[in-house]
Amino acid sequence: xxxxxxVDAAVDIAGVTKRYGSLVAVDDVSVRVAPGEVYGVLxxxxxxxxxxxxxxxxxxxxDSGTIRVFGRTWxxxxxxxxxxxxxxxxxxxxxxxxxxxxxxEGLGLLDGSTDGRDLSARIEEVLDVxxxxxxxxxxxxxxxxxxxxxLGVAASLLRSPRLLVLDEPANGLDPAGIRDMRAVVxxxxxxxxxxxxxxxxxxxxxxxxxxxxxxxRGSVAFHGTIDDLRAMAPDPGHLLRTGDDHEALAIGxxxxxxxxxxxxxxxxxxxxxxxxxxxxxVADLVRAGVPLRAFTPTRTPLEALFFMLTDDxxxxxx
Length: 318
Prior knowledge:
The structure is a single chain. By secondary structure, the chain is α/β, with parallel strands linked by helices. It folds into 2 domains: 4-231, P-loop containing nucleotide triphosphate hydrolases (Rossmann fold), CATH 3.40.50.300; 238-299, 2-Layer Sandwich (Alpha-Beta Plaits). It contains 12 helices and 13 strands. The chain has helices at 4-8, 49-56, 74-77, 100-111, 116-129, 145-157, 175-190, 202-206, 226-231, 245-255, 275-287, 302-309, and strands at residues 11-20, 23-33, 38-42, 64-69, 85-88, 163-167, 194-199, 211-216, 219-224, 238-242, 260-263, 269-272, 292-297. It has a 6-stranded mixed β-sheet with strand order 5-6-7-3-8-9, sandwiched between helices. Strands 11-12-10-13 form a 4-stranded antiparallel β-sheet, with helices on one face. Strands 2-1-4 form a 3-stranded antiparallel β-sheet, with helices on one face. Helix 5 crosses helix 6 (145-157). The protein is elongated and about 80 Å long. The protein starts with a helix and ends in a 9-residue tail after the last helix.
């Protein structure tokens, strides 16, 4: 029987495990995606992200655990589990000798969810969402990789899904392509669409995801919000810029043993210690006449936290 809590979730993955012989590709993973949120599944190559999404799409079966999509399971609903779901696993493929519009027209007619007139209007809408209006009559063979990825998103949106699943949508893109893809996801999120995406780049999801799960070697290494992840960081200290770093170092070492003052990686000094000790240290710098130009808190980059939680030393499957 489907519970109210299960129906409320767009995606409810509970205790899912997938093995290939002796290799555990996904190990007791649970993920819950609420309607309307942008959820990121992160991990290095081989962490099991794509395997997890393949099970969500019913392309492979889990050995144990359950997957519900809007309250439906594959066992109960079969292919109707994916009603209202669209997306792509790995890179979307298109006919290179057809234009972007022709590819979308063919996919829309095969799907049969709209008639010809409605399909034409819908194509205009999705091309605008992914910023391909004006390039839709160019052959896909001449598209950049980033344009093909965005065309994949457009194709997924033809059905007006409630849930969009994107597997590594920015993989292989240059910085401009990543920026464009991020803008597309932001527009989709603003429209209220639920988005589940995988990535191995922390900066790709930092600006757009409400919650993230970080996988490593098939298991969950972290689950929570971006702020939860930041809270795990060790104290990175404060960046201190003075007119006399030599004197500032000396004052810290002699008068404040609980404050660690070291040269910073990009110039200046980094001071770490209890807040009240840092305040006393800064006050002593002022009393000593050391020119104080900046004293600002720093934070550990999210990418550094990602690497703290993951590694690539053990063989795994993607």
